[in-house]
């Protein structure tokens, strides 16, 4: 049997959520019979070579050498715009014509459709999510996509349009893989139609966990993640106060970040009363043990659109529901799981959502379905999309 050679490309070896999916995609492909996998990321670059994040010629040259040496049948790209830059797309396209390999890209953020990869714009009133209906319209030009001022915003937009004019990702890749329905909608609003749904696998591989059941009218909500402005923790605490902490016993914060000191100072009275508790950053096993023991639900108050908020899936893995801000991908991602309760940014909505959450937790017969987010499902779907093991002809 001829081996199928797969080249997997990403900006970083390790950094965040995209890198976890990068790792899992490599592991899934390597576990497939007859598949030879090679990685290309920042660890493959000469740290002393001159490089620019705007156009990294050194990365393009290094990738060219890797392709010529490995001669892949499939090329899969995760992220490229932070380190490798759009320069690598030209290399991928050029050798695709020469070698005939198939190409795929997973969209981890919104850089393909908008100037700001978080799909955010800024006004004097704060941070906002760009509505999908605004994409591919002149309205986006008037929205400020950068916090760094008008000049930086203008330069960012000029660069984005220049890269789009030079090379369009949708023409380089045979299929653009979407981890969420919201991402797929955003791409299609931009006229990118060669999209396919492929949910990211959850990094949490746990044995079946009994679902949390509670008859208490007051619940412990757990925030897990980076304590940063875009995650919306400040706004959620303010909202909880405006709602009179209805059905909320306390808010538990697991994680750290630039907003922690500000929050501890600003809400010192809540910290003193035990209604706001910081646990800091815990190792994963310790975190899961603490969540099972203490939390009644996870809360995801993010202000940005997100993409594939796997915290919803991970909450279900722990037998917990998720209280989710009704914005962006959070509105639609994981609806089939059965553990979501959504709220909007007004006190009456939060009070209603908390009442719904109390009722949800009292139900003993409920079920959560996370099968679409398992590593096995991801590997099977990935092999099908990339036509690995189906007898498809492969270039020499």
UniProtKB/TrEMBL annotation:
- InterPro entries documented for this protein: Glyco_trans_1, Glycosyltransferase_grp1
Keyword annotations for this protein, in alphabetical order, are: Transferase
Q: Which residues form the Glycosyl transferase family domain?
A: 221-358
Is Signal among this UniProt entry's keywords? no
Q: Name one GO molecular function term.
A: glycosyltransferase activity
The entry's protein name is Glycosyl transferase
- What is the scientific name of the source organism? Caballeronia calidae
């Amino acid at each position: 049997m001829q081996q199928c050679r797969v080249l997997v490309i990403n900006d970083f070896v390790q950094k965040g959520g995209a890198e976890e999916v990068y790792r899992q995609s490599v592991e899934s492909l390597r576990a497939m019979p007859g598949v030879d996998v090679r990685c290309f990321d920042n660890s493959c670059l000469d740290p002393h070579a001159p490089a620019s994040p705007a156009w990294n010629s050194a990365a393009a040259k290094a990738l060219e050498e890797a392709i010529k040496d490995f001669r892949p049948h499939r090329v899969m790209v995760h992220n490229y715009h932070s380190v490798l830059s759009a320069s690598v797309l030209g290399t991928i396209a050029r050798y695709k014509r020469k070698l005939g390999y198939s190409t795929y890209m997973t969209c981890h953020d919104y850089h393909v459709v908008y100037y700001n990869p978080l799909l955010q714009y800024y006004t004097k009133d704060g941070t906002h999510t760009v509505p999908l209906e605004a994409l591919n319209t002149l309205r986006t030009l008037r929205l400020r996509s950068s916090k760094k001022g008008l000049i930086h915003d203008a330069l960012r937009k000029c660069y984005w349009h220049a890269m789009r004019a030079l090379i369009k990702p949708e023409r380089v890749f045979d299929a653009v893989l979407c981890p969420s329905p919201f991402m797929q909608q955003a791409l299609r609003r931009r006229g990118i139609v060669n999209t396919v749904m492929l949910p990211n696998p959850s990094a949490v591989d746990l044995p079946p966990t009994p679902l949390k059941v509670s008859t208490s009218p007051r619940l412990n909500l757990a925030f897990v993640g980076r304590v940063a402005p875009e995650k919306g923790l400040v706004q959620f605490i303010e909202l909880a106060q405006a709602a009179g902490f209805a059905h909320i016993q306390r808010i538990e914060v697991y994680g750290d970040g630039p907003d922690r000191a500000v929050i501890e100072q600003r809400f010192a009275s809540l910290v003193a009363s035990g209604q706001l508790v910081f646990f800091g950053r815990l190792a994963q096993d310790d975190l899961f043990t603490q969540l099972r023991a203490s939390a009644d639900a996870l809360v995801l108050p993010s202000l940005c659109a997100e993409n594939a908020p796997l915290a919803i899936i991970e909450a279900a893995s722990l037998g917990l529901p998720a209280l989710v801000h009704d914005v962006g991908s959070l509105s639609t991602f994981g609806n089939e799981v059965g553990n979501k309760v959504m709220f909007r940014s007004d006190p009456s909505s939060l009070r209603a959502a908390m009442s719904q959450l109390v009722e949800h937790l009292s139900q003993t017969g409920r079920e959560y379905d996370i099968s679409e987010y398992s590593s096995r499902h991801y590997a099977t779907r990935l092999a099908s999309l990339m036509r690995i093991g189906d007898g498809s002809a492969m270039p020499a």
